[in-house]
Amino acid sequence: KGVSAMAERLQVNPTRMELTRLKKKLTTATRGHKLLKDKRDELMRLNEEVMGTQSDPYYGAPVIVLVLADGTIPTYIEDGSCVLENLMLAAHAVGLGSVWVNRERQIFDSERGKQLLREWNLPTTLRGVGAIALGYPQGEAPQPKERKKDYIVHI
Q1: Phi/psi at 102 (nearest 5 deg)?
Q2: Which of 36, 76, 130, 133 is the least buried, fewest Cβ under 10 Å from its Cβ?
Q3: Which secondary structure element, helix H or strand E, spans residue 129, and what is its range?
Q4: Is the pTM of this model over 0.70?
Q5: Cα–Cα–Cα angle for 96, 98, 99, nearest 5°?
Q6: Beta carbons of 84 and 67 less than 8 angstroms apart
Q7: 99, burial (CB in 10 Å: exposed 0-12, middle 13-18, buried 19+)
Q8: Within 10 A of 107 (CB to CB), how many other CB atoms are there?
Q9: Residues 6+ apart with CB under 8 A from 97
Q10: What is the pLDDT of residues 68-94, one digit of tens each?
């Protein structure tokens, strides 16, 4: 049942030509995955250098979203922070867990960070604001704590 259901989903025609085409797609996907994993691993190493530790700052999350903003704009930190917050809210809305990682400014202000921007054909005026690590949470989210009485004062 599992194999036939997958074959229906992929609409595979078991011809030699079709199998060769699928093999090429798999090779391309594997190469793309390795490229992305290498980039993730380098970002992890750069982040570890800034922290002075050897632990994964992205908590093993399968997806990292970098938020970079034009450093020539005076409000780039505030603008990028709004992007990060909205990414976290959107992730939560679809059942994903997220973590805001905060050392991308130091990474992309470094010479290696500027080199990465050039390799990615991005302007070197971009500055790191933060990153969001995305994945499926391992458990239920904790319930929010009770609000403090008279913590908010309406004037």
Answers
A1: -115, 20
A2: 36
A3: strand 126-135
A4: yes
A5: 170
A6: yes
A7: middle
A8: 21
A9: 91, 134, 135, 136, 137, 141
A10: 999 999 999 999 999 999 999 999 999
